């Protein structure tokens, strides 16, 4: 029966189908025809909607992809392949350049140790007078490393009023990174009678929030002996404090939970107490002992021991791990003294073999300065771990970069205790001369911070200690913004100095580095290109601002150096043009040495180093200088708005007034460092008449020449020494900067040693400029106690921040003539 019903149904359906088909074919069923048309239209619109939805999904997906590019690593093939305990020689170090004296490991979650001090008689309310972080406001007479080899030892001198603290350390290799001893000697400055004043030293140990382990004070029956603890990397360890000489009058300790490594000093201040041992003894300032917040049940992450003594006295701090063998002699007392002297002697020998200053006839005083310049550069190397904050045009808000380490020198321990991309290329010129492996390690860490676009954030603010020293407006890094690619200068210098003498592991490192250098060059050559073939433009200038006399170009590294007054996309910058030319030339040479195809780099270098192209884009026949191009007028000034009658709380900040409409032109009324880049980077042909003009101009006192070096901006330029806003004093508008003067001296050395009609003139100016720079920097060092960020073009006095033993330390290379 079931089969019969199915058969009947099928038969009925067949008849219906046939009838329908028949009527459709002869037009006898218009209703069905309309239905088919409606069905087709519906299907058509359905396809349209599907396509639109799919396109929207693809668009959103692509936008999401673009959003993620800014914080996506280039790839997982890192340049740094050995870290932490795999490199035991540099595991421990003075890698906290922002504090006066501190040690940590090259470990993401390191145990840290450090020193604070104060004079109890002078301590002010709120803890004012406690020294910890390098602060310009402390107004110390001097501080800085006298010698530091980057690996095994260092000696630092700190002058605080009439008193001198000498801090030093010696490392001894071994398991778990080995052992070390730090010594703090407190004395009266030479020339002053002994002042039996008390000073309190606070030696501390701390764990950051991610470090697994514990720390606690240790004591004997009668006194504190030190600190012990354990971390996953170090295992069990001890820090023993011993009085090497002099008399300690009081000891106290603090064991508590600090809210972060950036608030250790504040934690100490909040714990200070007045105590009295007996009725006949004056009260003393002491640490509070065990302090556990009632609301928290956290183990202590901060232990500090205060030793108060009368000057002079010496304290040794001995760090040992559980792997320390009793058969070894502890680095303490006379054993430490002898070991330190041995390392000093080795340092002196290596220093002379590398730089040959004594052979060149420099005095002991000059060599002492030179060793301090190197020591401060090497002693200013830090190890940071954390994530930058970055942003692209595709992200609505700043996002976090990936967490990563950075091993880098810093420009200034007081003002810039963090990594800066273009500074580091200059630092590398000196560090690579002292220790090539050290510089390659630094460079490797920097290039591991490259994202998938080939971009490296120009300022690295990694970790809570680094972040605490940075104004909020400078924290976010934009992936459109560059910084001069000075690492190409470092590579160029390494290839020139070592060439085929590089060791196998050094060649292997360059092989790993090569793809990242390719990506970096490509990023520059695409994102920073201008509108005309061969032109380049720094991004990041404020096109809408009205407060600045001339919008800053932070990305160029030359900050307020005058550019076109009205930034737009038609600008072209001569200094960036030259940087790209040198980058291409360096890539071509490196490609050849590595056996890679460098044809495109050779062609790019050949194209950009063509002086005819450079002249077409940047040479001013009127002013006879190289110049930027853009929308510009010199007729600008800062003016304060007139207050409205009876108005309250007006913003009366000065703003820019444009007195003459800008026009597209070469910015040839401005002559200074930027104008010299074809000369600085040796792109100008030795027989070019434009070279003669540049040599003549730099020697004119009414333009750039001074007895202390070349000023950054000509005295004839409209913005010479002009404030950029009412709050921003001139920065690159006349002051003498040593990195640019180094490039100038290096160029003069080159042009005085290649055949050309201007060889004698270059040689004469070379000798004069080199002598002026060396004499002034050394003179100011002994007058002020510091190496400075910049120097006054009228007096030669140091200015800006101090100590600035970043690129100012290149004075040593001027002395040794190793370019």
Write the layout of secondary structure elements.
Layout: H1 2-26, H2 30-69, E1 92-93, E2 102-105, E3 111-118, E4 142-148, E5 153-160, E6 163-172, E7 179-188, E8 198-207, E9 213-219, E10 224-231, E11 235-256, H3 264-271, E12 273-275, E13 284-286, E14 289-290, E15 302-321, H4 333-355, H5 364-379, E16 381-386, E17 389-391, E18 399-400, E19 404-409, E20 419-420, H6 421-434, H7 436-447, E21 459-460, H8 464-467, E22 476-478, H9 487-498, H10 504-527, H11 574-593, H12 599-608, H13 611-618, E23 619-620, E24 625-626, E25 629-632, E26 636-639, E27 655-658, E28 663-666, H14 677-680, H15 689-698, H16 738-751, H17 759-784, E29 790-791, E30 798-799, H18 811-816
Parallel strand pairs: 11-14, 17-22
Antiparallel strand pairs: 1-2, 2-3, 3-8, 4-5, 5-6, 6-7, 7-15, 8-15, 9-10, 10-11, 11-15, 12-13, 16-19, 17-18, 20-21, 23-24, 25-28, 26-27, 29-30
Helix pairs in contact: 6-7, 6-9, 7-10, 9-11, 10-11, 11-12, 16-17
């Amino acid at each position: 029966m079931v089969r019969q019903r199915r058969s009947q149904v099928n038969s009925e359906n067949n008849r219906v189908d046939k009838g329908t088909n028949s009527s459709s074919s002869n037009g006898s069923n218009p209703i069905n025809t309309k239905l088919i048309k409606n069905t087709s239209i519906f299907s058509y619109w359905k396809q349209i909607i599907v396509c639109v939805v799919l396109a929207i999904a693809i668009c959103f997906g692509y936008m999401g992809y673009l959003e993620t590019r800014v914080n996506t690593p280039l790839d997982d093939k890192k340049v740094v392949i050995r870290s932490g305990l795999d490199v035991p020689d540099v595991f421990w170090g003075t890698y906290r350049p922002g504090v006066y004296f501190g040690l940590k490991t090259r470990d993401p979650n390191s145990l840290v140790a450090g020193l604070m001090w104060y004079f109890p008689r002078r301590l002010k309310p709120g803890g004012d007078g406690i020294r910890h972080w390098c602060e310009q406001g402390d107004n110390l007479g001097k501080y800085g490393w006298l010698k530091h080899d980057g690996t095994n030892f260092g000696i630092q001198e700190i002058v605080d009023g009439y008193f001198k603290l000498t801090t030093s350390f010696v490392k001894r290799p071994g398991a778990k990174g080995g052992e070390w001893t730090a010594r703090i000697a407190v004395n009266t400055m030479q020339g002053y009678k002994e002042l039996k004043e008390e000073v309190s030293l606070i030696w501390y140990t701390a764990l950051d929030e991610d470090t697994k382990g514990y720390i606690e004070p240790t004591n004997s029956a009668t006194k504190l002996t030190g600190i012990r603890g354990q971390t996953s990397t170090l295992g069990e360890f001890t820090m023993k404090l011993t009085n090497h000489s002099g008399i300690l009058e009081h000891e106290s300790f603090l064991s508590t939970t600090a809210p972060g490594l950036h608030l250790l000093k504040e934690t100490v201040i909040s714990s200070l107490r007045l105590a009295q041992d007996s009725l006949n003894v004056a009260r003393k300032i002491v640490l509070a002992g065990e302090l556990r917040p009632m609301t928290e049940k956290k183990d202590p992450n901060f232990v500090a021991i205060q030793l108060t003594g009368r000057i002079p006295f010496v304290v040794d701090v001995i760090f040992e791990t559980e792997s320390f063998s009793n058969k070894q002699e502890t680095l303490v007392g006379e054993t430490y003294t002898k070991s330190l002297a041995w390392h000093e002697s080795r340092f002196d020998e290596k220093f002379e073999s590398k730089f040959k200053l004594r052979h060149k006839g420099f005095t002991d005083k000059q060599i002492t300065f030179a060793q301090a310049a190197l020591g401060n550069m090497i002693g200013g190397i830090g190890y940071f771990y954390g994530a930058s904050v970055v942003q692209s045009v595709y992200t609505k808000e700043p996002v976090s970069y990936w967490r990563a380490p950075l091993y880098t020198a810093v420009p200034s321990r007081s003002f810039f205790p963090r990594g800066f991309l273009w500074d580091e290329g200059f630092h590398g010129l000196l560090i690579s001369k002292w220790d090539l492996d050290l510089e390659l390690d630094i460079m490797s860490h920097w290039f591991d911070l490259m994202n998938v676009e080939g971009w490296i954030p120009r300022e690295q603010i990694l970790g809570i200690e680094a972040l605490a020293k940075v104004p909020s407006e400078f924290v976010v890094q934009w992936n459109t913004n560059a910084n001069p690619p000075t690492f190409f200068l470092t590579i160029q210098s390494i290839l020139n100095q070592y060439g085929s003498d590089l060791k196998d592991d050094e060649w292997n490192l360059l092989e790993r580095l090569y793809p990242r250098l390719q990506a970096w060059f490509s990023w520059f050559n695409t994102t920073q290109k201008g509108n005309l073939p061969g032109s380049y433009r720094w991004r990041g200038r404020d096109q809408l601002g009205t407060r600045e006399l001339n919008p800053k170009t932070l990305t160029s590294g030359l900050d307020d150096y005058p550019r076109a007054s009205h930034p737009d996309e038609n600008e072209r910058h001569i200094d960036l043009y030259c940087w790209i030319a040198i980058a291409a030339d360096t890539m071509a040479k490196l490609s050849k040495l590595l056996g890679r195809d460098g044809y495109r780099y050779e062609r790019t270098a050949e194209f950009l180093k063509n002086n005819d192209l450079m002249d077409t884009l940047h040479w001013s026949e009127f002013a006879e200088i190289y110049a930027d191009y853009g929308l510009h007028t010199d007729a600008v000034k800062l003016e304060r708005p007139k207050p409205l009658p009876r108005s309250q709380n007006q913003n009366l900040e000065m703003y820019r007034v444009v007195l003459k409409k800008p026009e597209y032109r070469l910015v040839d009324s401005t002559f200074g460092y930027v104008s010299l880049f074809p000369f600085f980077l040796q792109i100008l042909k030795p027989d070019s008449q434009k070279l003669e003009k540049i040599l003549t101009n730099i020697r004119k006192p009414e333009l750039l020449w001074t007895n202390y070096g070349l000023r950054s901006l000509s005295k004839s330029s409209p913005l010479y020494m002009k404030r950029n806003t009412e709050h921003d004093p001139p920065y690159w508008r006349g002051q003498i900067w040593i990195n640019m003067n180094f490039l100038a001296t290096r160029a003069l050395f080159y042009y005085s040693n290649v055949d050309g009609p201007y060889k004698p003139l270059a040689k004469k100016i070379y000798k004069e400029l080199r002598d002026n720079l060396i004499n002034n920097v050394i003179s100011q060092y002994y007058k002020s106690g510091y190496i400075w960020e910049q120097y006054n073009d009228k007096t030669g006095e140091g200015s800006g921040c101090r100590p600035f033993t970043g690129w100012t330390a290149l004075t040593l290379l001027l002395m040794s003539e190793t370019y």
